[in-house]
Amino acid sequence: MTMSTNNPGLTRTPLRRFLDYAVLSVLAFIFALPVLYLFLGSLKPSDEVLNGLSGFLPTHLSFDNYTAVLDSLNSDSTGYFWRFMGVSLLVAFVVVTGGLFVNSMAAYGLSRLKWRGRNAVFSLVLLLMLVPFESVAVPLFYMFNDQRNTLYILALPFIANAFSVYQFHTFFRSIPPSIEEAARIDGAGPWRTFFAIIVPMSKPAFASVAILTFLIQWGSFLWPVLMVSDPSVRPLPLEMSVFQAQLPPDWGQILAFGVLLVLPVLVVFAFFQRWFVQGVASSAVKG
């Protein structure tokens, strides 16, 4: 069976395609300007960073700002940059991996298994999506006050996430029930069905949740401010706020610090990009 291409709504003229790509290119360039300014500014002397549009000119470029940042954060009194980076990576890794396991299993139970009260629990999950973390941060602070300045307390409140459960739930609901019925006929239980069939089929969903979770956790600031006073367990975003508060501010070094903060996010996105795009595209089609 072939699809007719005579419908003008399904085809685009060369002029229409050119205009679409031109508009998208302009928008992409506009959104990329702050990132470009960040990278160029990190390679410039501090007195040339805040020069308006001239900051985009590639003049007097060097890696001196990066060297200065790493040298200034390389002692017991100031802390060590790579330790701050390691803390952030470790906490993000625990939140992402733990969240993928916990939230995907919760979503599977809510979307594919039949049990009394399932709809009520899922309604509660939807309600939790409306509760901002800022509204529960202070109660959590008093609840875990005795656990301050520990690594696991930076990750514990963020492993279970209502929005991640909802993302997995939406994707799992699109999987044909006949696949699970065939697995049950072959003798597979819920655990084997989930890990051997559902998980391999849900790579786009796992990639999407992993990227969004890592992005949110990597930029987490409020919770570390409340729970961390020891520099040895200080994550990178909190250290950047301390670094840029030094007087007088060296904007070249601050932007270099910003680039070092952004790079892990770009690496994670590049690694999961293919599955992330598939997940977004499939969600759009199914939605």
Concise account of the structure shown:
The chain is mainly α and 287 residues long. It has helices at residues 14-42, 64-72, 81-111, 118-128, 134-143, 151-155, 162-173, 177-185, 190-201, 203-218, 222-227, 236-244, 251-286; strands at 74-75, 79-80.
CATH superfamily of one domain: MetI-like
Strand content: under 5%
Largest sheet: 2 strands, antiparallel
Radius of gyration: 24 Å
User: On the 0-100 scale, what is the average pLDDT?
Assistant: 86
CATH class category of one domain:
Mainly Alpha
CA-based shape: globular
Sheet with the most strands: spatial strand order: 1-2
CATH topology of one domain: MetI-like fold
N to C succession of SSEs: HHEEHHHHHHHHHHH
- In terms of quaternary structure, the protein is single chain
Q: Kindly, what is the distance between the CA atoms of the first and last residues, rounded to a whole number of angstroms?
A: 25 Å
Unreliable stretches covering 5 or more consecutive residues? 1-5
Instruction: Provide the helix percentage.
Output: 55-70%
- Kindly name the structural category: mainly alpha
> How many DSSP E strands?
2
Tally the helices. 13
Please give the CATH architecture of one domain.
Orthogonal Bundle
Topology:
Layout: H1 14-42, H2 64-72, E1 74-75, E2 79-80, H3 81-111, H4 118-128, H5 134-143, H6 151-155, H7 162-173, H8 177-185, H9 190-201, H10 203-218, H11 222-227, H12 236-244, H13 251-286
Antiparallel strand pairs: 1-2
Helix pairs in contact: 1-13, 2-13, 3-7, 3-10, 7-10, 10-13, 12-13
Pfam family, one: BPD_transp_1
Protein name: Sugar ABC transporter permease
Keywords: Cell membrane, Membrane, Transmembrane, Transmembrane helix, Transport
